[in-house]
Amino acid sequence: MTALTLSSSSAAGLRADAVVVGVAKGPKGPVPAPGAEAVDEAYGGKLGAVLDALGASGGEGEVTKLPAPEGLKASLVVAVGLGAVPEKGVGYDTETLRRAAGGAARALAGVKKAAFALPMDVADDTAAVAEGALLGAYAFHTYRDGRADTAADDAKEAKGAKNGKGAKGKANGNGVKAPLAEIALLGGKRDKAHRTAVERAAVLAEEVNRARDLVNTPSNDLDPTGFAALAQQAGKEHGFKVAVTDEKALAKGGYGGLLGVGQGSQTPPRLVRLEHRHPKAEQTIALVGKGITYDSGGISLKPAGHNETMKCDMSGAAAVLSAVSAAARLELPVNVTGWLALAENMPSGSATRPGDVLRMYSGKTVEVLNTDAEGRLVLADALTRASEEKPDYMIDVATLTGAMVLALGNRTFGIMANDDAFRTRIHMLAEAAGEQSWPMPMPPELKKGMESPIADIANMGERMGGGLVAGLFLEEFVGDGITWAHLDIAGPAFNTAGPFGYTPKGGTGSAVRTLVAIAEEAAHGDLV
Question: How far is CA 110 from CA 89, 114, 167, 446, 482, in A?
């Protein structure tokens, strides 16, 4: 993890390899933002003019590198665009600062130390810069020479190192750059509020990056048993309880959804319960994550072109593990249980077939019309089990449907809920945390499409509105009186395009920050 410090030094006086400043888009060209005064002075007050001559505009997402002039101890200046100059008395949006810091950190891969002199007048701004820089400095190099260790190494150790891929090695000159090693935040205050904000940002970034590592780890090194072992390691490290239900206990307990999905794989399923408890807690939230460590589609096999990234189908479980770990590390005064529904969906002679009927943990029967609609089956068992403990709130997280991606695109997750106020609150918290989301309806007329002639319900319904149908299916397994929401993160969980802001290519850690924000609100009694 990249080191992070708060410094009272000036941008001119701190010894670093690079200094990062913000520039806004003014009416006549780039305008240095607050925090850039010392650097602008070193350029003779002409930093904006120099950037203008280089073609920079100050637009959001823009990153411009230029040699540092005399008067700075750093040898490199990195100017990041912040967009339009805000109105007088109004600061920059925290997400703008978060993305700018992340873009700068990505651009500084291979650099040892960078000083960030972005606008940080208030604690929220300092937290945003810290969080963005740490998230932007992320890299997954486990399977490349000269890389730093990540959770994938731990996964292989937990499984007994099934193969030698990703073994530790020395740099071989293949061009892999290490992430930015050290970040110093300049200009922000060093009072308790700022220190607390930075400490929270560091924990949050570490946990988002934990989820990213898990999502990026290939399925041959992360199966349900390996994932469960990693959860146990995290629990020991950060002081939360972990209980693993194996295939024998699942069979004895009647977890037909988990067993039905996992029975085609040589690796059996697992249900993992995580628990963070606080003596001053007044509320309990349950987080339920879909953990399909590889999704081939089962007998309803995915075609080529649709299965290459299906190691990411456990992103919901990764988000839940990281969120519970963050709650424990931050010592939030709220009780949080996490449920990881782990299975591998594979075709074989023992796999569930289209047309089979499964008896779920709830006792309901489900006709499986499509084995590639498996996430809702494992979640159904986990939701029922979590409901037995009667939490005040329950949120499930899943890369559940391609239909949600078609509706909202690759950067926005959908929110469904059985309580409109709860759905609205989650949307507000997600947006404040920097995660794009959108409230989705639960049209009751779509339930008819899931009627089965031989079972209580089918796992498929109408094709149109498929993401909504999946949410309606899950609602059938939520206990009475429990306020529940469903986050479909199929779009933003795995970035197949190029990196942007603080978001890397590959696993993104989607929903971790939202879940932590929900836990914090519940801790304060302000959730709904």
Answer: 37, 11, 21, 52, 49
